[in-house]
Every structure is written in C-alpha cells, then in structure tokens.
Amino acid sequence: MGTDETNRSFAAMDNTRAQDTIPQLSQEKILKIMNMVKNKELSIEGALDLAQKETHAEKEAMNMAFPMDSQDLLTGSQFNFSVYKYKRYRWQKRILQIDFNTETIFNIEKGIIKKQFPFSQVKSYEDSEGRRFSIAFHGRADYELEAMSLEDKTKISNLVNKVTQNNSYRRPADSCSGRPAKGDVIHEGLLDLQQDSFVSIKWVKYLVQLSEGELSLFCIGNNGENKNADPVAKTINLSDGNVSVIKENGYDTFSVQTKEHNYLFRIPFTVQNNQAEDISKLQNEWVSLIDRYCMLWKKRSEPQDGFGEGTSEAVYEKLIISPNKRAEGAYCLAVGSEAPPQLTPLTEQTTPGSSFPLSRVQAVVPPPPSFPPPSRLSPAWKRTKAFHWDVVPQDKIQKSIWASCSQHKKKIDESRIYDQFHIQDMAVFSGNEPSANRHIMLNQKIAHTFNIFLKSFHIKPNQLKEKLYILHEDGGGLTDEQITALRRYLPTPKDLEMYQSFKGSPSELHVVDQFMLEMCKIPHLGQRLDLLLTIRELPVCIGDLEPLINQKIRACKELQDSQKFVAVLEYILAIGNYLNEKAGREMAKGFQLSSLTKLSLLRGKERKITLLHALVEQIFLHEPDLAKFSQELTEFEAVPGASIKGLRAEVDVLKKELENVIQYRKFIKSKTIKATTQESQFYKELKDLIQKYEGHLSQLSKRCDEMKKLYTDTLVKFGESPDQDSQELFGWISAFIREFRKVSADIMS
C-alpha cells in the first residue's frame, strides 16, 4: 500500500470530480486522509470512501449556504417537502413548509394550513431509523414525521438544525472565549461505533467531527466494506440541550446520550496510539470537548420568558413511539405456541428504535413484551372475526337495561353467523405446512404487526415482484392500502444483512420471514412502492387542487370587480374617522381588512347596539342597494378553507414528485439489461402516464401562477401586506358578510 498508489487514486478521483459540479476537497483534507493511510488507520478503499463522503458533505453545506441555487425552492427561502405525519395510529400525508421569509414552519393538508409554528418555538430535530424523524417544539407535542426520501430527510435535518442553532444564538448567553464560528470543525478523528447485527455486536469505523452545534459521523465501515452504510452522515444535534457524554468504565470507551439514542464509541488502536496511556488521553480529550459544548447548549436552551415552569412543556417531553416503530435487538418468537418463548437478549441491551446499544452504566431496559399466550381460543378451523365493542362497566350493569338481559333470551342461527364471519387463514399457502409454530427471524414487535397485515394480504411471496410491474389496481396491481402498508415494513440494513445470510430453503421459514426474504431480494423496493403510490395519487391530487385554485381565482376577481364592497368600506371609513375625530384621535386614509372583525366588538351606549348595527343603519338610510353587496361576492358564502400559500406549496410538491417518477423511470430502465414483456409494457404505460400528467400539471401550474398574480394585485388594491395569508384575509371578509346579513335581518324585523 504505497504512497504513489494512494496519490494515483486521489488524482483519479479529482479528475472525476472535475467533470462534475461537486466541490473538490482541499489539499489539507487530502493530506489528512493520506496520513491516515500512511499510519495504517485506513485502507486505500476506506480513504476513497471517506473522501467521497466528505465531498458529499461539502456539497450539502454549499447548498445550504447558497439556497438561491437550490431547485427545491418555491421562492428564495421557502422549502416544501412531502411528508407523512403520525397521528392517531395512522400515517397521514402532509406538506411540511419551512419558510425563512416569515420564520415559520407550516403543516399543510390539501392547501389548508393546519398548524403553524414560529421558528422561536422549534426546540430540536431528532433522527430516527430510515426516513423517520421528529421535530420537538417548546410547549407543544413533538411532530413524528417520515420523509419521502433520505435526501429530503437530510435537507429537512439541515434546515431545522439551522433554525435551532439560530434560536440558541439569539438567546443571551455567557460569552465563550475563543469560541469558533458556527460550522467550524473543533475536533475530529477516527472512532469505532458499536452496532449490533443479527449475529453479533460489532464495531464500525467512523470519522467523527465535532463542531459547536453538532457531532457529524461519517461511516467508513470496516476498511470501506460496509455496503449497508448510510450514504449521508449521521448528525447528533447538540443544540437542543438534551445531549450528555459519559466516560465508560474502560479506558477506551465513552457514550453520547440523546433523548432517543445512545451512541457508544471506542478509541481505536493505531500505529501512533498503541499504548493504554495514549488511548486514555484521547478518551479524556473527546469527553472533555463534547461535554463542554453539551453544557454550553444546555445553558442556552434553558426556558426563557413564555416557556417557564408554568407551562405544560413537560407533558410533551415523553417519547412518542409509534406502534410500528421497530424495537431493535434480535429475538426469536413462536407464534401460536402454548406459552410465550423465553426471550434472550443480545450481549448488550438496546434502546427501542435505536441501532446503538445502551451504555453499561445505564439502567437496563427490559425487553419488549412477548405476545400474550393464546388462552381458550377456538381451533383455527372454527374461529370467527371478533366484534370489538365497548363493554358496559360492571358497576353500571345493575341499574341498566342489561341487568335483565341474557344472551340466551334471543335465539340465533349460529351456523349462519359462522358462515358470514369465519376466518380463513390466508397466511398459510398451499404446498407449505402450517407455519404458526415456527420461529420468526424478524424483530418481535415488527413481526407481530406484519403478521397481522399478511392475514389479509392475499398474495404469495413469489408473486410480490410481478405485482410491482402493474400500475393500477383494476389491472391486478396492489391496492393503495397495501402499498402504504408495505412501505412501513421496508427491510432495514440490518434486515438485509440478516436475510442475505440465510442459506436454507424459503419454505422452511414462517410466512413473515418468507415475505421479508422476498422483499430483500427486490432491488430499490422503497422507490418502486413510492413510484406506484405517486402515480396513483397524482391524478387525485390534481383533481382535488384544480377546483380549489379556480375558486381562489374567482374570489380574487370578485374582490377586484366589486364596486359595492368598496362603497361599504368607504362607509366604514367615514364612520370610523368621525368617531376618532370626536375622540381626539387622528383621522385615517384607509384601514386593513382585519378591522372588519372589530365592528361587532365596539358597543354603543346601549349594549345591544354595535358599530356594525350603525353601519347597516347608515347604509339602509342613504344607499339601501349597497346592503346587497354580498351578491357580488358569492365565493365568500362559505368559510374559506385552502390558502393560496398552501395551494402553491401543494403544486410545488406535485412537480417534484412527478420529476422523481421521471428520474426513477430512467434509472430502472438503464439497469434493465433485457426487459421481459411485462417490464416493457410497464415502461410504456409509465411513459404514457408521465406525458399525460405533465400536461395536466403544466396547466395547473399556469392557473396557480394566475392565482398568485391576482391575489398579489388584490393585496395591493386594499393596501394589505404582501405576505398576508389569503386563508386569514378571506376569512375576515366571509365572517363580515355573515354578520352583516344577521344584523340586517335583525333591523328589518
């Protein structure tokens, strides 16, 4: 492994990079990596892998530093992402908008702004397995979300971490002499990170970089051979103030603990550090530096005014764990056996939902509960579906109608009921012996829910791949519900490692493992499922958005054209100026439409008379025809739902999703050497649908632009702020119309 060979490898890599727009590594970083090779800390393959990861990190940093170059923006600093939000045991599709113009995070559903959070309320970003993550807020429940892709997840992480760090820098804090600028690397080095696999506990090599706000972990693997390593760096966010570092009992290990995870690190032996004293010195250095910045951020994140002890923030500090979140650790379970199997954990306990073991000084977390033993269940061939009713409590029976009721009073045709509601065990296929008593390789918790899903999934494992080449349900493809469910059970890198090591016959496995083994064999399964779901959802979303956009266009045109509404506003201005002049206040030339909601709040000498009553009387007295002004504003009859801001975000995300479909079609087609008849038909149908949806989306985008221009002109006409949300503005007008009609009816009667 000579220096010349290393130089040639880096030169080849530089030439490749020169053809791309990716920034090149500095000479300082190249020399650093070459010294690692020289000291036998890294192999040449590991060095090249590390260089590529650092280059990728620099590219991401550059995109974040110059957001105007990003193609993902609706405007200069407004980011839209399609996500799934976990709510009431279901994953619901949402738009997550991070708007640096208004410094607000929006939760949008079908164009309606459901929630909005000022940046000042954002507390932290917490990473989870796969595409999942959560955002914590001061005084509100955490948002548990799932990104559409790992790339989107990385961008959201960068943006939210930028928000939390900016929040911390805005708070008064003790100055730290010699403190580096945000993003500067304070300390870095190679560390081993403990991870558990299916067969054992193992240490994986990472380049760890400490900056003031975070720890960045770049996986190098074992000599660059870790094929299942994440393509992007892991990030431990220090700025939420909930991170701590603990020195372990040994001289070479320490752990970093967050709210959800525990990361156990080990100082590796190298040519230069081969003595216990050297290792212990490095351990102390890492622990001291990490602890310094953990304490700094903890002090900064202490509650400020408005988030004191009187708030209910502590209620939301509890970890939100979805029923489908995977608890790590490999356990064997027997389904349908007489008693639950004895669970034997691996050498180190792991935290639920974490891929990293608990430290040895932490309290032992009990293993996930095993399935309850099946008691008094009917034989499989006699079982029926259960009716999950709400049972009357025993203490309420005596005084209710149920005290005199008996199940024997009414005769029923039991055979008829059985025929209507008996269960067929769909999880056991012909040719296989029943698998109820077989051990399952998959994690216990996920296996339980996956097995329940498979009971109603009437497809054999070997039929799954061909179903992915059928675009529509009516053509024999998967249902939308099946696609959504399969996305939740995508194999993790650990699952891939476990099932790829299986050498036996699939027929020997439980049906859960048969399906998971088949899913592990399908390349890019997650992208294929996303493609099918997007193709199904696109026409529905376009159909939902089109009438909403058209309605906003009509509403803007009505406001632009209505002369009577303007005349009513002139009456309000005249009455308001008269009152203010008599009250010794300055007269105004105009007022914002938010003032319409205050007309019914100002009461006269008689409490039942409001300023709105006075307005209606004056109009009836001088221009009674103006009382019918609402006939020119028919689009405001109902309470406005979707906002123009939300609708534009929805269209922006739809364009991204269609572009992802186009790119994925090119990708899978390039990987197909010789397409089968089914694959060729699939590519042709997909191409036709893409062209069709491109046309529809182009028209929708033009209407969206027209809507935006009309609304901007409307804001100018009424002197409103350019960032005034339409959902709020139209709501004021709609409420004013309803109240005006009510008062008019009262006066007429």
Short description:
This protein is α+β, with helices and mostly antiparallel strands.
Tell me, rounded to a whole number, the average pLDDT. 75
**Span between termini:** 98 Å
Please tell me what the overall shape is: globular
Number of helices in the DSSP assignment: 17
Radius of gyration: 32 Å
Largest sheet: 8 strands, antiparallel
Kindly name the structural category: alpha+beta
Helical content band: 40-55%
Query: Total number of β-strand segments?
Result: 17
Strand content: 5-15%
Residue stretches low in confidence (pLDDT < 50, at least 5 long) are 12-23, 64-75, 172-180, 305-378, 425-434
Report on the architecture of this protein.
This protein has 749 residues and is of the alpha+beta class. The protein is built from 17 helices and 17 strands. The strands form three sheets. Strands 1, 2, 3, 4, 5, 6, 7 and 8 form an eight-stranded antiparallel beta sheet that branches. The protein is globular, with a radius of gyration of 32 Å.
Outline the secondary-structure elements.
Elements lengths: L2 H16 L8 H12 L5 H22 L7 E3 L2 E10 L2 E10 L4 E6 L2 E7 L3 E6 L4 E6 L2 E8 L2 H21 L14 E12 L4 E11 L2 E6 L14 E4 L6 E4 L5 E5 L4 E5 L9 H25 L32 E2 L79 H8 L17 E2 L3 H12 L8 H4 L12 H9 L4 H8 L10 H11 L3 H37 L1 H20 L28 H12 L21 H28 L5 H41 L8 H23 L1
Antiparallel strand pairs: 1-2, 2-3, 2-8, 3-4, 4-5, 6-7, 7-8, 9-10, 9-15, 10-11, 11-12, 13-14, 14-15, 16-17
Which terms summarize this structure?
7-stranded antiparallel beta sheet; 8-stranded antiparallel beta sheet; 749 residues; alpha+beta; single chain
